[in-house]
Amino acid sequence: MKKAIRFAVSHPVTISMGTVAAVVFGLVALGRLDVRLLPEIRYPSLTIQTEYPNTAPLDVENLLTRPLEESVGVVPGLRQVHSISQAGLSQVTLEFNWDVDMDYTALDVREKIDLVPLPEEADPPVVLKYDPSLDPVLRIGLSGKATLTALRNVADDVLKRELESLQGVAAAKVSGGLEEEIQVHVDESRLAALGISIAEVEQALREENINASGGRLRDRNAEYLVRTLSRFENLDQILDVAVAVRGDQPIKLADVAEVHRTHKERTTITHVNGRESVELAIYKEGDANIVDIAERVRRNLDRMKKQLPEGVELDVLFDQS
Question: Which terminal residue of the chain, N or C, has fewer Cβ atoms less than 10 Å from its own Cβ?
Answer without folding.
Answer: N
